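Thread title: Can someone regenerate the structure for this chain?

I was given the following input by a collaborator and told the matching structure tokens would be attached. They weren't. Posting the sequence so someone can regenerate them.
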Amino acid sequence: MLFPLLGEANNQDYLSTLRRTLAEERMTIKGIIVTHWHGDHIGGCRDVLREVAPVPVLKVPHERDGDCVETSWVTPVTHNQEIAVDPDTTLRILHLPGHSTDSISLHLLEENSIFVGDTILGGSSGTFDNYTSYMRSLHSLRTLSPSTLYTGHGPVETLDTIDKYISHRQKRERLVVDALKECGEGSVGEIRDIAYRADNLTNPMLLFQAGEIVRMMLVKLAVDGLAVNVDGGHWKWNGKLPSN
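Best answer:
Regenerated them for you:
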């Protein structure tokens, strides 16, 4: 049986439900699979491990794992590794960096459904720390044509959601290209203000997040040959088509 781990620490309602379910079903926990290092996903491990005998914490290692767990608890997993939960349930590990470098999804092979962690948040657009990797991971998910997506923070989604995520980011990237062409050369903030002009952003946190997205898109555009980082702070339109 698969039992969802609520990632946050010190959630007593979750721990009570876990104790009751384990007792009623006469089950034991053999291991904990963590999709990535963020505290709202790995944070509850310590509490769960107090409730049960020591079991491995299965994840792609990350330098921040030690924020929430002892690093000695982590058993590394690799891309395409398969885990037999029971004779009828097989999980395949999909290493899909982008949201974070260690992000994984879990492909339930018998159903062709995927536990996507935060690669697909559900109900909102995704966040990422590397735009190029994130887009590559979305396309990798798309090629699997999953029947169901179990998201990290929202409702159950379908294949159409992946298409919407890809389309949304491609449209935003085109706005960044247009902004770069319009200003010719500018800082990340100046390019952001043009690219997000229609959004009328005023919230400082949203402005910061939009700036980070633009910065990562500019890095990708530089690889494509469309942008040049002039002096570390300013970006310039290169006036060339992508090389591929």
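The chain has a mean pLDDT of 90.
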